[in-house]
Amino acid sequence: MNSEEEVPGKARHLTERSRRRQDLRNLSHVEAAFFDLDKTVIAKSSVLAFGRPLYREGLLSRRAIVRSMYAQVVFMLVGADEAKMEKLREAMLGLTRGWDQAHVAQIVRETLDEVVSPIIFAEALELFTEHHAAGREVVIVSSAPAEVVEPLAAFLGADRAIATRAELDEEGRYTGQLAFYAYGPYKAEAVRELALRDGIDLSRSYAYSDSVTDVPMLEAVGHPVAVNADRELARVAKERGWEVRDFRQPVRLRDRVPPRGPTIAVSGALAFAGAGAAAMWWWRRHERLARHGRGAGVARARAVSGDAVVALRHSFVALGAARRIAAGVSRS
User: What is the percent of the chain with per-residue pLDDT over 90, rounded to a whole number?
Assistant: First the structure.
């Protein structure tokens, strides 16, 4: 039997997703659609939902919950440049060092129904369906931990994922080190490596993101799309004539979650999410005080910055949300 006759027999043993991937590789022009995760596929950070369970189990303090709520809302509204993200990453890794992955897995299993909320954009899911119907692979590309990105990608029907990878020690605890950081130009590099390995034609492919930090990934494809774009990405998209979309229809995740409990991989990402927002608060406060000093000096420094004014305007909303979460923690 020659090799061509063997292929159908092998294909019968592949999963549906694997068969689709194999069929795509047999095409002369393989195309793909690359999606950023936060604020592109997911409407909000998981820390907003999982902060209280992490607090109850001793991974986050009550003070960290209040501060993380404030930091996360301001961060989502104002954003951060590459230098700020690097400092946030370092602080986040420091907070998660020593956390036991199995412990976090238990927290997630016991609180999943409590914390799920409408975080998946219906428009993104519709695009997944459209791209698959057109024969394209759907790839999630995110700086979030692989522990959350990979299972979420599979759950949503994406074909694969590119994500940040953290190290675990022999006892299953986070070491505070990263093996790969899927951010900015590193995202684009990973996309190009995947395309080279699997024969994906990037000139015929699509990419979606909300952040200017993903311009390298958007530039790598023939069809870049800015989704819920931040100020800088909106400017770049306008200058270059890129398509711009707004996603505004989140769907309830609990309606789509399979009956099985989450894997340890999913739970590991929640640890990073909870620590991430607290780290953002710490870094912003440290930088602000170091640069401008305390009291009236801080107020004057904020007044001269457009972005700072936006942050101050929305901080009251963030603080109110933080207080509600803190009140809920106290009652738990």
Answer: 31
